[in-house]
Amino acid sequence: MTQRAMVTGAGSGLGRAVAQGLAARGCALALVDIDEAAARATAAACPGAPAILVHDLADPAGPAAAVAGAIAALGGLEVVVNNAGYGAAEGFFAMTAALWDRTLDLNLRAVALICSAAGAHMRAAGRGRIVNITSPASRMALPDYAAYAASKAGVDAVTRAAALALAPYGVSVTSVAPGMMDTPMQRVTERQLAALAGRSDIDTFLAERTARIPRGMRTDPETVARAVLWLALDAPDDVTAERLNVSGGLDRD
User: Is the pLDDT of residue 35 over 80?
Assistant: First the structure.
């Protein structure tokens, strides 16, 4: 049976790699992004004819609307990848409510509401898999990246709660924690962190951060997407409430 999948933040980076991987496996896709042009570019790189759903998931109504739109477009939903996210660095003593609101609205509240809405559909069907994207930041003390770290710690909590709520109905909820991954958001935030640290030697700064990874190298969206696809399509049904680290040893369980 063809698996029907919704990917949020599908317009670039990890979301695009996941979408391409799911499409290559024969899944019917609903691509969710706030940037219609980016979503269309991803759709053009995928076999089949993915549905394109333009939503601002930071809007309180956005998550439920995205799930409803995906179900309507695909005729059902067996897989959800909660990938959309936002991250920005700001000094600990210069925190702003605006950054906290935007970060938590998209990274945490949207994930929780999508888990609830998609989970209700999957519960009725008696099957389904939800994969949330978390981060090693959720376990780190990051004074200049506190909102992002807190949002991902919240994703870990939501993943556990959703897994417990949905396990009796044949639905698994898991997460993937990518390490330092070369995406547009990663490049922006690292430059922000360098500026906050008073560092203008960006290449040296990035090399120092990379050296913190035990494996000694960064990962990439395609590598992380393989882990997401395994959880979404191939993992045993008993795998739920688990966090899969794809960080070269930066994050350890």
Answer: yes
